[in-house]
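Key result, reporting period 2: structure in, sequence out.
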């Protein structure tokens, strides 16, 4: 006979306390002026480099794999700036998760190719916004929600209290949060068929068996098949987008780029390769603002060595 899972009420209470404490800290940091947040963020990025932290080591390895044409000094300079931008992202998230939607929208100074989203929404066939780990995707989500209701796909973290904080921080008008699991995927299809909008991080490495390998900066990367399957089973349109940080804490620019129609090809290999080309085109527009500290290549194709062994 199957055993029923049991969760102690005390465990649930501890998770709530931990989540509330973390959100309180996030709220305090979120009150700081943007320029000060960026200053602290860049200092945190430098700290990751000074202590030879995991993200710094991963960033250096990723850049060695993806842009070997750059010299070591150039790659290290790019990795250093990427760590600083990541630090800025962390502090900005405290702000965006603890203030009203209008506060985040006030940080946006310009929108490039805004007509791509307007036209896609006007078709009424559904819209998928492919948002790589580039710039500030939390602000992008808020901008999109100001234009039309959006369902944002996310992978649940291991710690329950972290998920509580995420759900609370992203709880804004027009934003629905959908877990990347079977029941959630079914709701995504229903949203598209009803002409709604989805936000997906297309460069998040899926579990083995949930995607296919395709080139990303010339490196075979396990890539999600969810986005291309959604396109193949609907008439939705896809656009790429990111919120790019402007210099000197001046705010952000929202950028949209068109998606390649090959992404709805019945040949999944062609479709997923087109998806990665789209992500790469976005990243090359703002290389330092990409999350190079993410282990994008931690799963290797069968028979190939682990990309990070001996390098971290």
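The corresponding designed sequence is given below.
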């Amino acid at each position: 006979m199957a055993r029923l899972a049991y969760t102690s009420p005390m465990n649930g209470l501890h998770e709530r306390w931990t989540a509330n404490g973390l959100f309180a800290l996030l709220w305090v940091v979120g009150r700081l002026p943007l320029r000060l947040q960026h200053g602290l963020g860049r200092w945190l990025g430098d700290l990751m480099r000074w202590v030879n932290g995991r993200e710094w080591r991963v960033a250096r390895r990723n850049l060695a794999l993806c842009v070997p044409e750059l010299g070591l000094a150039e790659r290290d300079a790019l990795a250093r700036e990427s760590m600083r931008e990541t630090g800025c992202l962390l502090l900005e998230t405290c702000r965006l998760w603890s203030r009203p939607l209008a506060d985040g929208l006030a940080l946006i100074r310009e929108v490039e190719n805004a007509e791509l989203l307007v036209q896609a929404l006007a078709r009424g066939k559904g819209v998928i916004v492919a948002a790589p780990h580039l710039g500030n995707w939390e602000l992008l989500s808020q901008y999109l929600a100001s234009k039309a209701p959006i369902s944002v796909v996310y992978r649940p973290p291991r710690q329950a209290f972290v998920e509580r904080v995420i759900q609370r921080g992203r709880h804004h008008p027009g934003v629905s949060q959908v877990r990347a699991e079977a029941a959630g995927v079914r709701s995504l299809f229903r949203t598209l068929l009803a002409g709604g909008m989805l936000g997906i991080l297309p460069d998040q490495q899926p579990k083995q068996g949930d995607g296919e390998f395709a080139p990303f900066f010339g490196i075979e990367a396990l890539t999600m098949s969810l986005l291309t399957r959604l396109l193949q089973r609907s008439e939705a349109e896809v656009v790429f987008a990111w919120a790019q940080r402007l210099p000197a804490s001046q705010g952000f620019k929202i950028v949209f780029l068109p998606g390649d129609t090959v992404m709805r090809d019945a040949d999944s290999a062609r479709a997923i390769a087109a998806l990665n080309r789209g992500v790469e085109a976005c990243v090359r527009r703002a290389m330092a603002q990409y999350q190079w500290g993410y282990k994008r290549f931690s799963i290797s194709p069968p028979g190939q060595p682990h990309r990070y062994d001996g390098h971290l």
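The first helix runs from residue 9 to 30. Strands lie at 108-112, 127-130, 150-154, 175-179, 197-200, 211-216, 219-224, 237-245, 252-258. This case is discussed further under Risks and Mitigation.
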